[in-house]
Amino acid sequence: MSDIKTEFFPFKGGLDLMTPPIALDPGKCFDAQNYEPVITGGYARIYGFERFDGHQSPSTASYWILPATISGTINIGDTVTGATSGATAKVLAIYVGVVGEVAQNYLVVGRLSGVFVSGENLTDSGVQAVTTGTAQQNGALLPLDDANYTLLAANDLRTSISAVPGSGSVRGVKYYNGNVYAFRDNIGATAALMYKATSTGWSQVNFGLEIKLTTLVKSATVTMTTASPTVVTDTAHGMAAGQPVQFSISAGGTLPTGIAANFTYYLVPTITANTFEIAATLGGTPINVTGAGSGTITCTAMGNNIYAGNTITGVTSGATATVAASLLMTGSWTTNLVGTLVIASQTGTFQSGEILSVGNLLLATTASAAVQITRLPGGQMEFCNINFSGSATGYKMYGVDGVNPAFEFDGANYVPIHTGATVDTPAHVINFKEMLFLAQGGNLNVSSIANPYNYDANQSAGVIGVGDLITGFVPQGGTYVTGSTMAIFSTGHMFTLYGSSVANFNLITSIWDMGFSPFTMQTVSNDTYGWTSRGIQTVISTLTFGDFDYNSVSHEIQTLINKKQGLAISSTSLHQKNQYRVYFSDGTGLAVGLTGQTPNGIMPLNYGLNVRCICTDTNAAGQEVTYFGSDNGFVYQDNVGTSLDGNPIEAWLRLPFNHSKSPRVRKRYRRAVFEGYVNAYAQVNFSYDLGYGDPNVQPSAPVPDTSLGGASGYWDQFTWDQFTWDSQVVGTPQISLQGTEKNISFLLYSNYAQFQPHTFQGLTLIYSPQRLER
């Protein structure tokens, strides 16, 4: 008998389409779908995704086994009611079991409400059955039945979940403050709307109204008494105590002694309809005038801040509203004011050109009526959750889409942000050094520090031009606040922004002429990954001032990269999995895994639909959650469940032809032992191929009714077998092998909707060396 040898090789390295077959590491694969690289090594079949609108998640569904004697007609999909208990449930399946050699009917039910009692009638348009026991939650005896019934319950919940109302693709989806928000064009594609996921489905968010502001305009000719204190006469002035005012004099005249020009005074409480007294400070002592002066005196009311939460009143219209947000874009509240107020609703109707008061203080003049806030249709959205206030509850959502002005959202109020640019439709947004950066074409509009509303160059805001279409930006060497630099990506270059404010920013152009596709830049393990014309690149900071090194991580799949050029549409980083994922407009994607900061493999994904927009965040429980929107109008939660929204997850691994470091020695193959684990229960089909797929080595057999993509020249006919895999700490499913050749390749294949993910970590090959091939 020949010597028996064993060889263990770990699964690592991912897909490799470029290395010659004879030189391929046996732990890599030359074809794969819907397996992902694992941080600690191995390949895991991916979790699925499921539609989402705030209703109960299908992946959390339960079923119950209810024994009953059926006397009438019960159909799958019926709702049965307990005549005694009042409990209700929906019938998902019916089967017959045997109890003590006696046949027993069992109902598999979902959506159970209440508690059924044994011996009660089950009604469904009349009495149809009698219970013979109580309902047992997830009570199947066999793991396979448990998986099948759980899928039935999940599919039933799935029918209650709706697409985002409207038409076309989901424009954006964002997780913010424990809630999921989505944007989609309306039915007529005339406007874009915002929705919040709730326990009853999608609920539209009211955008509110917007009032444009300009500087307070109110002045009048007045007279002053030479008295202690002085009395100012201003017929029907309409002002209240605390109102700031300034005085000026006609040409050639002089103000009364004790009054200074362009100095701010404040009305004191001694006020009549036509007269008032003034103080030099708010709430101060009334001042005296000792000399009459000469000329015509003009009193000008001075504007002041309007704050969120204030109640404003239109002095002319009498309309009132509570301010949701107050935006000072340029100028100040006293001079050259350009700003807006956002209100949820109005009582009455504000007029353009009227004075606004708060608590009888006159503060600003309207430059428009209260206009309904709307969004134009189209665009692809990008978001950041940013805290400019420093408080624990100060995070707000900021978003752009390349079609509308940027906006802020605090969970209740949608606030358009106007930069004053001629074309004010930024496509990319980020926070860097406590400033909001908005990319518009080749320009960066930079807000004032800690004030995302203000874009006045006199208040530390500014514009930075890069000379190329900006596609995104990512801080380098730290967080959005502490990052030492910011990488700015464009269609043809990368730029590095140094500095901490507009006053000292320094923009350096990279020496590398390489453009990055929009919506593909992500940070994973402190490095930035993105999609370029050369494939997936990582940006690594160097010690050379003003530049970064690039490193391609996708050269081993370059032939696949070439086919995907021009198709990249979105990306995300999964920090708990340490992965970068990029998605394409053909429904596929790539998962780049990392161990530490070192890539450990790239694996192809196939979702069967487009991941048009995507977000990943952390919920209140510290769990990473991912949501994406697609072209069909649905939002999906990713990395959950056992199916692709009810459809099977078709997954396979095609391992290289392994020659066990003896490419010319023939070997008799005896057994393969797989190392790995499964979350609960799985079924996996397997096959193997010998001698680079030599059809003379192994008799062919029909392939099951499935389509396995990839390098079909290596394999087209297989004899299939199957192992079932129950939950263990380390599972070691084994398969017997027959045949003698120089090398062997394995195919692992599954196409199921009900089974939890499984992970393959490696393989032990048992074989006997034979003669040298001549």
How would you describe what is shown here?
By secondary structure, the protein is mainly beta. The chain has 5 domains: 5-18 and 657-772, no CATH class; 58-158; 217-301, Elongation Factor Tu (Ef-tu), domain 3 (Beta Barrel); 306-372, no CATH class; 383-412 and 420-638, Methylamine Dehydrogenase, Chain H, CATH 2.130.10.10. It has 2 helices and 60 strands. Strands 1, 3, 4, 54, 57, 58 and 60 form a 7-stranded antiparallel sheet that branches. The chain has a 6-stranded antiparallel β-barrel with strand order 6-9-8-7-10-11. A 6-stranded antiparallel beta barrel has the order 17-26-25-24-27-28. The longest helix is centred in the first third of the chain and has 16 residues, at 143-158.
Structural class: mainly beta
Number of domains: 5
> What can be said about the biggest beta sheet?
7 strands, antiparallel
- What is the CATH C level class of the largest domain, in words? Mainly Beta
CATH fold call of the largest domain: Methylamine Dehydrogenase, Chain H
For the secondary structure, the number of strands is 60
The first-to-last residue Cα distance is 22 Å
Would you identify the regions where 5 or more consecutive residues have pLDDT less than 50?
Answer: 699-718
Mean pLDDT: 92
How much β-strand is present in the residues? over 45%
Contiguous helical run count = 2
The helix content, as a percent range, equals under 10%
Shape descriptor reads flat
Evaluate the radius of gyration.
Answer: 35 Å
| The CATH H-level homologous superfamily of the largest domain | YVTN repeat-like/Quinoprotein amine dehydrogenase
CATH architecture of the largest domain: 7 Propeller
